[in-house]
Amino acid sequence: MMVSTAHAALTITSNGANMSDSLLAAIRTHDTVILDGTKGEIILDHTVVLKHLEYKTIIGTHDACLRTRFRVTKDIRTMLDSAHVMDLSTAGDGGLLSNGMMVREQRERKTRQLLIDRFNDPDETFRSSGGIQLSHCRHITIRGLRIQGPGAIDVSGNDLLGMDHSMYISIDSCVLMDGMDGNMDITSQSDSITISHCYFGYSALSYDHMNSNLIGAADRVVADRGKLHVTYAYCTWGEGCQQRMPMVRFGTILLDHCRWECTTAHPAVDVRREATVIINSPSFGPGVQTPYRTAPDAQCIIR
Description:
11% of the residues lie in helices and 40% in strands. By secondary structure, it is mostly beta strands.
């Protein structure tokens, strides 16, 4: 059952402290939450997870920005370089962390262990750095908001904006930067999603894993068949994006009048298992060496 007990609108400004829990409470109890940026960025210690909510509107005004408290600082990037993390495999050779967690990939294992040791954080709280996760939600609108992540880093952390088992979602005129894992991932039978006039990118905060937008989590998740209908209209993937703009499994995706202004040798649009992607009037910048790639059981239609 969906929960909708809200009526009036509520305006929120920054108090300079962690506002993850207060923002969650506000969205639960009000139909419309207006995030006002006049007092600065709204800081989140952890991802705001919205579960089983419907008919909610989140609006940003006066350059409102949600920002994660944790950041991939220059010191962290220097530490990773000193450990030659970028030379390690992302395809296997993982192992156990000191906290007992098993990690599949060598680079991720090394990165996570270094951060555990640096912050004396066996619970790996840094991995919960993200913006908003929609889970089993319906009829949600997010508009005019900037969400600033900690910087992309290979720790299997949270997405900046994620959706699972959610339908009738509209994301409009938002800027999503430096998601730890992805900037916006749509998975687990989510459907009827519209993303319009949004910008995705990565700044110097990001270290690796600049994989912006995933639709469909894995080839084995066949429950996604017949779902994942997503439209991107007039969206831009900017500098720093390396892959997944988007990467799609099973879904039917329309990319309408979108722009790719990044520099990458990887496929920008990656069409994988049983996916159909229609690209209408695209604009690929000169730095995009591979605009798209299509799997044998998928189709990519350029118009």
